[in-house]
Write a structure and sequence with these properties.
CATH architecture: Alpha-Beta Complex
Shape: globular
CATH superfamily: Spore Coat Polysaccharide Biosynthesis Protein SpsA, Chain A
Order of helices and strands: EHEEHEEHEEHEEHEEHH
Helix content: 25-40%
CATH topology: Spore Coat Polysaccharide Biosynthesis Protein SpsA, Chain A
Largest sheet: 7 strands, mixed
């Protein structure tokens, strides 16, 4: 039996100087193509947009809308750079409330899909995986238009270590704790991975599947102008680690080793069972 899938991205109005000015139209068209491929084998995929009111007019007609986003990190703290980054919780809360799909997908808006993406996601679900990440391939920027997708599909690309595509059961989502973590900067991927691991029964990070791709490898999160946001997400990550450490739930998994090393004893400074990392 095929799973019903709901897939959400954050639709924005990028400046022409932004890499997203090129990437977002490619992503959107790749999602349309992949959803059409899925429909041919009776897999139901609903595409959703999360957006601020001023960007509602940019949402493609073949996307469904969740209620407008009404806050960003700028409402929580003062930042040197006024990037209106949404909280991942606000995006996923709206998707959870809007759809009854069994499985939810979030991807960054610069992550494009291969045509068989949803078909392979459905196959992995049928194999029992209920919480997983699919790592992208990095391809060249030789082709940059939606009409060039056929050429993009032909590129094998290179492996990338980050996480920017997450698939999980809708009924597990109420157990997630994401603090005030925002998208668009460092640590976001680990916030999601940790929750996927803890609230799934069969977790995996698929690093060897050619199912998603990204144009170039710009590593925007390392730029000086997003340093404030990186520090903000570091604090949210620490909050999440402490939240789960209290119950001894931090997972023993290679994906989190560097994270534990980075924060060290800070994780347990507010936890009642200091030093306990329990779930393997």
């Amino acid at each position: 039996m095929n799973a019903k899938i709901a897939h959400i991205i954050h639709t924005i109005n990028p400046l022409k100087s932004s890499d997203l000015y090129i990437a977002q139209p490619v992503t959107v068209e790749s999602m349309r193509i992949a959803s059409e491929f899925a429909s041919q084998v009776n897999i139901t995929v609903d595409l959703f947009s999360a957006h601020y009111p001023e960007n509602r007019h940019l949402v493609p007609k073949f996307f469904k809308m969740v209620p407008d986003l009404d806050r960003s990190v700028l409402d929580l703290e003062n930042f040197g750079n006024q990037l209106k980054l949404p909280l991942i919780k606000d995006i996923l809360d709206r998707l959870y409330a809007t759809t009854d799909a069994e499985y939810l997908i979030y991807t960054n808006v610069d992550i494009s899909l291969m045509p068989n993406f949803y078909i392979e996601v459905n196959r992995l679900i049928s194999e029992g995986y209920d919480a997983f990440s699919i790592t992208r391939r990095t391809i060249s920027t030789d082709y940059q238009r939606p009409q060039d997708l056929l050429q993009m599909y032909k590129q094998a690309g290179e492996l990338h270590p980050g996480n920017d595509c997450f698939v999980f059961r809708r009924d597990a989502y109420p157990n997630y704790y994401l603090a005030s973590g925002c998208i668009g900067t460092f640590r976001f991927g680990k916030l999601m991975l940790l929750n996927l691991f803890l609230h799934g029964t069969k977790f995996e990070i698929f690093r060897d599947r050619h199912l998603t791709f990204h144009l170039g490898n710009d590593r925007v999160w390392r730029r000086a102008e997003v340093k404030d946001f990186t520090e903000f997400n570091n604090r949210q990550m620490l909050d999440v680690l402490r939240y789960f450490a209290v119950d001894g739930l931090l997972p023993v998994h290679p994906a989190f080793n560097r994270l534990y090393a980075y924060f060290g004893d800070e994780i347990y400074s507010n936890a009642s069972n200091r030093g306990k990392i329990a779930r393997g």
